[in-house]
Amino acid sequence: MKLQADRMQGPTITGYGQGWVAVNGEESRNSLLISSAGHRLDWPVADFESLQAIDFESLLAWDIELVLFGSGPRVRFPNPQWLAALYAKRIGVETMDTHAACRTYNFLAGEGRKVAAALLV
To answer: DSSP string covering 38-62, please?
Structure first.
């Protein structure tokens, strides 16, 4: 059987640890938003307690089907009202800890899915 490596079109998460995530080899200690379509933005959210509905609005302009919300070192679910605008555009949201979101993002992006990750670092 012939196997082919996945081809990532957008940013790839190349590493992560406590308090950092590396995208395309560049380490970041700040929260960030990335998408398989090539977007990469620093996300000005310091921690889960700082989250508001406005923090998810920049994702609305992206051509995505799913947002993976990495809630930090443990799973914490955002207020559903903060995600209402995403749901209205038929964009799904899955919540998991940030390390799981990193792994899942790479897997789905490698499959060619229109996915974004909102990662609290």
So the answer is: S-EEE----SGGG--GGGGGGGGGS
Cβ neighbours of residue 29 closer than 8 Å, sequence gap 6 or more: 19, 20, 121
State the Cα angle at 20 between 84 and 61, rounded to 5°.
30
Q: Evaluate whether 119 touches 31 at the Cβ level (below 8 Å).
A: yes
In CATH, the architecture of 29-119 is 3-Layer(aba) Sandwich (3.40)
pLDDT, one tens digit per residue, over 60-102 is: 999 999 999 999 999 999 999 999 999 999 999 999 999 999 9
Indicate the domain borders of the chain: 29-119
